[in-house]
Amino acid sequence: MAGARAGAPAPAPFLQRGSGKLGPLCGPSDIRVALVSTLRDVEDQFLQWLEWFRLIGFAHLFLYFDDPDQDEAAIAAARSTYSGEFVSFALNSPELRKEWMSLRSWEKFSPFTDDRMCRQLLNIAHALKRAREPDEAVDWMFHLDHDELFLPPPHGLQAHFQHLEAGNCRLCLYQNFEAAPQSHTLTPFLDVSYFKVPSGRVSKTPLGAAGMEFWAQRTKAHNYFLYYDNGKSAVKIPAQGSEDIAPTSVHVLYPPNNFKEFIVGNMGWTTFAEHELFEMNLTWMKACHDEIVVGAKVLHYPATHFERLWRKYHHLGNFPAVRFGGELVVPASFHLEARDEYLKYSDKTTQQEKLKELLERAAFLSDEEVQSQLETGSVVSIDTVRESLRQGVWIPPRQLRPSLFSLLQRRPSKEAMERMQRMRRMPAEVLFEAVGLLKMESLDQGLQKVVEQLETRGWAACHLGLHGKLMDRARLEASQLKPKMSKGATVIENRVVDPTESPNALRGDWTLFMQEQGLTGPKGPAPTLTMLESALTDLGMQLDPRLRRSRLQLRITERCDGMLACYEEGGAYSAHLDNADGDGRVDGRVLTMVMYLNQNWDRRAGGELAIFEPEKGELGDEQVEGKWYMVSPEANTLVLLLADRVLHEVRSAYAERYALSMWFCGQHAEYGGS
User: Fold this and answer.
1) Are residues 260 and 138 in the same domain?
2) In the listed set 146, 176, 204, which residue is the last one of a domain according to the structure?
3) Domain of residue 83, residue span
4) N or C: fewer beta carbons within 10 Å in the chain?
5) How far apart are CA 281 and CA 262, in angstroms?
6) For the chain, what is the domain count?
7) Rounded to an integer, what distance in angstroms lies between the CA atom of residue 326 and that of residue 384?
8) Any transmembrane segments, and where (predicted)?
């Protein structure tokens, strides 16, 4: 950096460099990751904020001070602690404003420089331009505020950005997690370890909905997050001589204008789930499910002490709810609620008391509420920041299990599969054959028994105990819907696979999805199947809290559309995992349910579901040993299996064979943990 290298040119008058001993911890051959931030009123934990970015391996921080006189002491402390290689300080001054005029962003923002967000955007563009100069060159740039931290995945900062560059990523948008303090603190990096999960990551289950509502009912605007929920990004610095980056959003640092090449090359990645991108108008981005990407996040600590909240709104005053001449409208939110609460009163003591009450009602958690919200999945515990700062070394978030994505890639080879096919086959144990499962007086015990089987074996087969006439009606409706069915297809990472490409794609069933075909509802053509689909949904929702408490630590987040399948004579489906690739999404399928509809099935007609259970080694090991357990597709039989773990196949059927299947998507409970 300038000021630290021999022969470096003297910096501009408004630029200052660190003069202390602590420099960056990245190596000379590492990818250089930097941060730009526009700062004001940083007295509380400025040095902790700087130290976090040093510990995780950032190369440089470009710090722009909006009101340098107010932060003079903080700037002096930081300068005397950190070297010019690690920090540089740009002071708001006529010289800096003159340099703004040379930016591509200037024409758009010049009328609005009294708006802090406008100044942020100009400072970001200014830093991005500096980052291409040889003496200040970096490879990637973040924009974060001084109440935000970037948390790398457990793999570390370098591994994360090496992965992005290997995939030709040039922009990555990260979801933000919002701090949920338990008491007032001016040092939340050390004291806060609970965070609200982004709304798109909360379970779409009754339990998840309760967690969302718990937070929403605390504010007038009924918001889940108090502030923003659309993430922050890092952008790859273009080569010198390329067009300057001119961001128009503090959240997405858009790359240069050659957007067609950018989109065609899938260069924009994000940790947001694919279904959220349409609402965010970001359909050009690629939703990533690999944990080396998904494991990275932004931690936001926006409201942790009433005095800091008062200082914020005392500075902002009666700010307008529109920005940039009306182009950006601030929606009803906690931000406006706090502004209005501040403006109601004229004396500082009353303002602070009222903001304290507002903050505690909207943002704080009691000990009892912590436990309940951890169970709903709206909150996670992340303590790696606190522990890293206390010990003075980067402590990666705990990785409680092997990378799920890595596990899912462990498909048996063709030779191993041929050997496995010769292993012993035996009838499966069917739970509750005498009494059935769906009986209210024994449902709780039955579901717990199923969870125990899923824990120990990865699958369970059970008898439902439904009336025979009900199953007759379901089979009749299924056969009447057969003309609407289409040939079954295997989808890997959201792409239909040609059967010749993969042995796991060989299948001989005909399928239709109930909701997709508009077949659900009591007045539709399949009321009995609709009822059974609802029953499976209810079972999944009731299994959810039990699976969370189990050793599996599995959290169901949503269900997929029910699928009706028919195997004609000779039809089969080769051995496969239902989710062998992560489904091309963050929340892949984790639980499969299959309900059979075939009354009085003749076992000589085959059609069994064969489930492989390893006894020595694991699936994917060349020398794995185990047995196949055979489940006859008889009406009233329900099979549950872990979709991402259990290898299974459908044996050739010699009579029409019908089944109703449903998949549940989910996360492992330690997702986002520390």
Assistant:
1) no
2) 146
3) 1-146
4) C
5) 16
6) 3
7) 41
8) none
Answer for the pair 595, 669: CB distance below 8 angstroms, yes or no: no
The closest alpha carbon to 194, from 364, 63, 415, belongs to 364
Taking the C-alpha atoms of residue 21 and residue 150, their distance in angstroms, rounded to an integer, is 24
Q: What is the CATH number of the domain that holds 475?
A: 2.60.120.620
Question: What is the rounded distance in angstroms from the CA atom of residue 412 to the CA atom of residue 241?
Answer: 49
| 309 within domain boundaries | yes
What are the pLDDT digits (tens) for 283-300?
A: 999 998 788 998 999 999
Q: Do the Cβ atoms of 458 and 640 come closer than 8 Å?
A: no
Say if residue 334 is in the same domain as residue 469.
no
What is the C-alpha to C-alpha distance for residues 668 and 137, in angstroms, rounded to an integer? 40
Q: Residue 661: beta bridge partners?
A: 563, 594
Same domain, 106 and 193: no
The pLDDT of residue 438 = 62
Determine contact, residues 174/231, Cβ cutoff 8 Å: yes
Highest mean pLDDT among 71-75, 413-417, 521-525: 71-75
- Cα–Cα distance between 593 and 662 in angstroms, integer? 5
Joined tokens for residue 314: 């005392």
Residue pLDDT, tens place only, 482-507: 999 988 765 544 444 444 454 444 67
- Taking Cα atoms as reference points, which of 393, 409, 672 lies closest to residue 553? 672
Q: What is the DSSP string of 230-296?
A: S-EEEEEPPPTTSPPP--S-SS-----S-HHHHHHTT-EEESS-HHHHTTTT-TTSEE---HHHHT-
Burial of 671 from C-beta contacts in 10 A (0-12 / 13-18 / 19+)? buried
Residue 231, token pair as written in the block: 């993430």
Residue 261 buriedness (CB in 10 A; 0-12 / 13-18 / 19+): exposed
Tokens read off for 496 = 């239909």
Torsion of CA 171, 141, 69, 4, to 10 degrees: -170
